[in-house]
Write a structure and sequence with these properties.
The chain has about 290 residues and is an alpha+beta fold. The chain folds into two domains: about 1-15 and about 160-225, no CATH class; about 15-160, Sandwich (Jelly Rolls), CATH 2.60.120. It has helices at about 5-15, 55-60, 210-260, 265-270, and strands at about 20, 25-30, 65, 70-90, 100-105, 115, 120, 125-140, 150, 155-160, 165, 175, 200, 205. Strands 1, 2, 4, 5, 6, 7, 8 and 10 form an eight-stranded antiparallel β-sheet that branches. Strand 7 (about 120) and strand 8 form a beta hairpin.
Length: about 290
């Protein structure tokens, strides 16, 4: 998907109304002493204080009131791409119980991020997240002491559903499930089966086809055979070279020895020129006379 089509899809999705996460998919925990029947669970009962129906919040019994410092945590049943967090106070009067309130949100409750209000007044505190963020925990805190924190409803909205075969923020990523949609956050296929040629949790990783794999295996084995033959040839050549060098070295060592042992034979083969080896005995001594 090119950048132009992605931007177009993002603009189209931004124009869609975000979807409110149902009450049944949210659990509420709190800290702070409750005022009478104004329990913390009232922030997630789906009832909004409508002054035209109930002149005061006491009449609808639909708001929560906790002694400060206090907090209320909304835990979603899973991670959503959240676009909006809307906190509502009572509309019949401004008693200061809706002041000094902060909101933080995130994937894990140990690492929540403080959020800035996009708009707020004495009855509404609104947060718009652009782009949407992956969120599972929303924490609303009432600071200060000596008074209550009053909240009538906390509503959390997620990104609108993506078209088929897309997911993530503004549906910018694609999944290739064989049948049905994929998870809007992770892209995981509901039927856990990918289309041919795709694999992975979100079916967004290309898979080598069987024919391509066969061709690859064929080339691999051919290359392996050629390499083996080449290795044998090189080994044989090296062995021949070593043997020739050893033979040449031995020949060089034998030649001088042969030359030295042949000298006595030369002298032994010389012909004898004297027939009488005792030449000195055959010398005639001349007699010297004394006068």
């Amino acid at each position: 998907m090119d950048s132009n089509s992605t931007q177009k899809k993002a603009r189209n999705l931004q124009s869609l109304t975000p979807i409110k996460i149902p009450v049944a998919e949210i659990s509420v925990t709190s800290k702070g002493t409750e005022f009478g029947t104004w329990a913390a669970e009232k922030v997630n009962d789906g009832v909004i204080h409508d002054k035209s129906i109930h002149p005061t919040a006491d009449d609808c019994n639909c708001c929560a009131s906790l002694w400060r410092p206090s907090w209320v945590q909304m835990t979603l049943n899973r991670i959503y791409l959240v676009e909006r967090v809307l906190v509502l106070g009572r509309v019949d009067r401004d008693n200061g119980y809706f002041n000094d309130i902060t909101v933080s949100a995130g994937r894990r409750k140990e690492s929540l991020q403080n959020e800035q209000f996009t708009s707020k007044n004495t009855t509404i505190k609104d947060i718009l997240l652009t782009p949407p963020r992956e969120i599972q925990f929303v924490l609303v805190m009432g600071h200060g002491s000596g008074l209550y924190m009053e909240l009538c409803e906390i509503m959390i909205y997620r990104q609108a559903d993506c078209p088929l075969r897309s997911y993530s923020v503004y549906c910018a990523k694609q999944c290739h499930c064989l049948d049905g949609p994929c998870d809007s956050v992770t892209g995981a296929c509901e039927n856990v089966i990918c289309e041919d040629g795709w694999k992975g949790n979100a079916c967004n990783e290309t898979e080598v086809s069987l024919s391509t794999k066969c061709h690859s295996d064929k080339y691999y084995y051919a290359l392996l055979a050629v390499s083996s033959v080449f290795g044998v040839v090189v080994t044989a050549a090296i062995v021949c070279i070593v043997i020739n060098r050893r033979n040449n070295q031995r020949s060089a060592e034998v030649a001088p020895a042969n030359r030295e042992s042949s000298s006595p034979e030369i002298y032994g083969n010389l012909p004898q020129t004297s027939r009488n080896p005792d030449n000195y005995d055959c010398l005639q001594m001349r007699t010297v006379e004394c006068h």
